[in-house]
Amino acid sequence: MRTRKLATLLAGAALASTTLVAGATPASAAGPCGSSYTRVGVYNIGIEKYGYRTGILEVYYSSSTGKNCALTYGDGPYANTTSWKGVTISRGDGSGKDTDADNYKYYAGPVYVSAPGQCIDVEGISPSWTSVKLNNVHCG
What we know:
Layout: H1 2-23, E1 38-45, H2 47-50, E2 55-62, E3 67-74, E4 83-91, E5 98-104, E6 107-114, E7 120-125, E8 131-137
Antiparallel strand pairs: 1-2, 2-3, 3-6, 4-5, 4-7, 7-8
């Protein structure tokens, strides 16, 4: 009886490890902004106002392109549901602004700005009445 349980346990573990490896994302897979971008910031939307997260603002940077990128995802009751999501990025002086906002199921963006040697401003909105805005961040 113990041998049969052990064999079942080992077979299950082998199947699980095969499934995990087969379903894993390859290390070279492109992120939401492109293959050369690295995530440099993740910011919660809605926690201070509601006590739970309504969205997530993510900021990325590519040293090869010199550009910053941002996206806003819905979270909590706004995750994977069509609702207002928005994202804006610009240089710290307000120039080079790129915005995307609409009723999206998953995320708004990506939006991009080139800001070599400067800071950036970013804002994430999810839903339409809740936002997080960061001024003069990710300077470089």
